[in-house]
Amino acid sequence: MARKAVVVFLSLFIGLASLIVYAENSLVGKAKFPLIHHSHHHQDTKTFLRRRELVSPSPAKQPSPPTTTSSQVSPNSRVYRVTTYGADPTGKTDSTDALLRVISDVFRNSTGQKGLMQGIPDLGGAEIHLEGGSYMISRPLQLPASGGGNLVISGGSLRASDNFATDRYLIELSATGEGDKSSSPFPYEDITLRDLMLDSNYRGGGISVIESLRTSIDNCYISHFTTDGILVRGGHETYIRNCFLGQHITAGSDPNEKDFSGTAINLRGNDNAVTDVVIFSGAVGVMVSGQANTLSGVHCYNKATGWGGTGIYLRLPGLTQTRIVNCYMDYTGIVAEDPVQLHISSSFFLGDAFILFKSINGIVRGVNVVDNMFSGGDKGVDIVQLDQSKGPFTTIDQVVIDRNNVQGMTLRATVARGLSQGNGSSWTVDFNPILLFPNLIKHAQYTLSPSTTGTFPNHALRNVSGNRVTVESDVAVPATVYVTVDQGTVITS
Ligand SMILES: *[C@@H]1O[C@H](CO)[C@@H](O)[C@H](O)[C@H]1NC(C)=O
Ligand SMILES: *[C@@H]1O[C@H](CO)[C@@H](O)[C@H](O)[C@H]1NC(C)=O
Ligand SMILES: *[C@@H]1O[C@H](CO)[C@@H](O)[C@H](O)[C@H]1NC(C)=O
Predict the structure, then answer these.
(1) How many domains does the chain have?
(2) Ligand 3 mean position to 445 CA, how many Å?
């Protein structure tokens, strides 16, 4: 069950562009990979289509072959074929009215069963089938305010007309429309949007899911949005899986990449999951301002950091509870404002993509960045960076940045090991090149190992300030001093 935690929304989105000093020509690196991009995506798409053909849906929901006419459909069928309502599958004429009539009929025809949350009419597994057509619409397909659930909309394309309102979405699970209002605070439950291509025609967004429960968005290709490809606000458990989202149709290294705008997925609610999703253009890949969301298998190559883009932006300073695992950040990184409870692991950062902690009130707590791979172009880019332009991080607790591997980038960590060798009475190991937080060693441990036999000097840890550890002995000896430091949690007694 979701917690209704308070989410503080920042009124301003502060872009990365001004923070990252990147020469434009540093992006040339991306051009080295166009063929990799192209062939990868091409192959993936083909595999994906093959698999869909092989895996047939359960018999109960198996769509009839395209030759079936409405008269052949059982009168008790709850599959609504939109062409029987006059929708134009060629996309030449406006199908808005026909499609809204279908939706209205489906919502009027609830089963009266009580399978869902109280106050949400059970539509009995009805399916609005687009019959493989491509439909032009001039107004949003907004679900009735009376609410409903246990419904599938599937199997075709929707395209916004040239006069579609730019502040709306092609499909809206939003109870703001006319008519009877649902008595449930969540008007929609168990709505599935599946196997759809949604083309916003650069007029507004793709799908909005407002105050809904347990929504599935599965195998949708959403393009040409100017606002959000998918907006989720309130409610909980919208599962977005197996989807492709991009503002512009491109296979990467697009010459107009710097002009990409819009947000592919905007999560302004709790407890959602984004899994196995590719975001191929747009200024922000996934914007997260709700808690307890999980992102897995998300490949972002929406807009390179050097052009001002962000792959995943966590805009909920103070408590995020976001888990990002097995993602592929491709020339675009992760930004987290005052991260508290954040886990990033098993992900791949390519093309100098990095993680930025942005200080708002100076808090970073309960953060794991572990077991990731980073690859860059030898430009000295740190894998994890701090933006302290609004003030330094002052509350730093339970932060573990460790066990990441790098190639062509600079490793940063909160735990480090080092050594100093010399013949004398003072040894210093400087951890500044690796420790993430300046002047913060919470724990240090050392071993002094003399390289001549028979010497047993007295020695002590003298200084740990400025991320430098100094050990001194009472007599000069040739020795190696091994030091381990940690910026994470310590207990004091
Ligand atoms: C409502 O559903 C029944 C089958 O359960 C069907 O026979 C009837 O045509 C439907 N009515 C409308 C208005 O869709
Ligand atoms: C270490 O330095 C001392 C003089 O400070 C010298 O006597 C000694 O030979 C040196 N030991 C080695 C192993 O270099
Ligand atoms: C520790 O080293 C810093 C310089 O890094 C120096 O300012 C400080 O006085 C030293 N503290 C002690 C106790 O020696």
Answers:
(1) 2
(2) 18
Question: What is the C-alpha to C-alpha distance for residues 26 and 379, in angstroms, rounded to an integer?
Answer: 9
Last residue of a domain, one of 351, 383, 407: 407
Name the closest-CA residue to atom 2, ligand 1.
109
Q: What is the pLDDT of residues 62-119, one digit of tens each?
A: 444 444 444 456 777 899 999 999 999 999 999 999 999 999 999 999 988 888 999 9
Q: How many angstroms is it from 467 CA to the middle of ligand 3?
A: 11
75 in ligand 1 pocket by Cβ < 6 Å? yes
Which CATH number covers residue 177?
A: 2.160.20.10
Integer angstrom CA distances of residue 177 from 100, 174, 379, 417, 461: 12, 8, 53, 61, 70
Q: Is 468 in the pocket of ligand 3 (CB under 6 A)?
A: yes
Residue to mutate (ligand 1; options 74, 109, 127, 150; most atoms within 8 A of CB): 109
**Rama region for 173: left / alpha / beta (φ>0; ψ in -120 to 50; rest):** beta
Q: Are 129 and 103 in contact (CB under 8 A)?
A: no
Asked whether residue 350 falls in the same domain as residue 463, the answer is: no
Spacing, Cα 432 to ligand 2 middle (Å): 29
Q: Are residues 132 and 271 in the same domain?
A: yes
